[in-house]
Amino acid sequence: LVDHNGIGGVWYSEDLGVHWTRIGQGALPYNVAYNCAISVEGGTSLLVGTDSAGIYRVENNNFVSATGGLEINTSAYSLSYKKNIYKNDASKPYVYAGTDQGIYISENRGRTWDKITFGVWDGKYVATY
User: Fold this and answer.
1) Distance between CA 54 and CA 87 in Å, rounded?
2) DSSP string covering the chain, please?
3) Where does residue 33 rank: exposed (0-12), middle (13-18), buried (19+ CB within 10 A)?
4) pLDDT at 123
5) Which residues of 88-114 are buried (b: 16+ CB within 10 A; e: fewer)?
6) Taking the CB of the first residue and of the last residue of the chain, which one, N or C, has fewer CB atoms within 10 A?
7) Which of 43, 45, 44, 47 has its CA nearest to residue 56?
8) How many other CB atoms sit within 10 Å of the CB of residue 22?
9) What is the pLDDT of residues 35-66, one digit of tens each?
10) Rounded Cα gap, residues 78 and 36, in angstroms
11) For 100-115, how does the pLDDT look when each residue is reduced to its tens digit (9 = 90+)?
């Protein structure tokens, strides 16, 4: 749960919303909107997308910047998680970020990002809903 205004911070629940716990702020900026959040790999990682400050992830109950590979001042509007399971039982997690600069993918739970859209699908053409 994110407070779009940034004042209330970021909260999570482990019991379907009966109880909520606020996550420490760490490096998460106060002066920007929080647009989205996603839990990755069954709660082993939490990511928050911001307006003009990129993406942040939780480490040791505090937020750290996870903007490696993103353009400066990127706004992240949506985050999505997908886990591929292969015939040999190997699996690989992917996180996707819809931003004002295009769509990005992370293969390491949001630590770093690679841009996967260019041209007509770049920037202002990315859906923000």
Assistant:
1) 35
2) -B-TTSSS-BEE-SSTTSS-EEPB-TT--SSS-EEEEEEETTTTEEEEEESSS-EEEEETTEEEE--BTSPTTPPEEEEEEEEEE-TTS-EEEEEEEEETTEEEEESSTTSB-EE---GGGSGGGS---
3) middle
4) 58
5) eeeeebebbbbbbbbbbbbeebbbebe
6) C
7) 47
8) 12
9) 998 888 766 678 999 999 999 998 877 889 99
10) 6
11) 999 999 999 899 999 9
Q: Whose CA is closest to 28, among 5, 3, 56? A: 56
Residue 81 sits at the vertex; the CA angle it makes with 29 and 22, to the nearest 5 degrees, is 40
In the numeric block, which tokens belong to residue 123?
A: 């920037």
Q: ∠ at Cα 71 (66, 72), nearest 5°?
A: 85
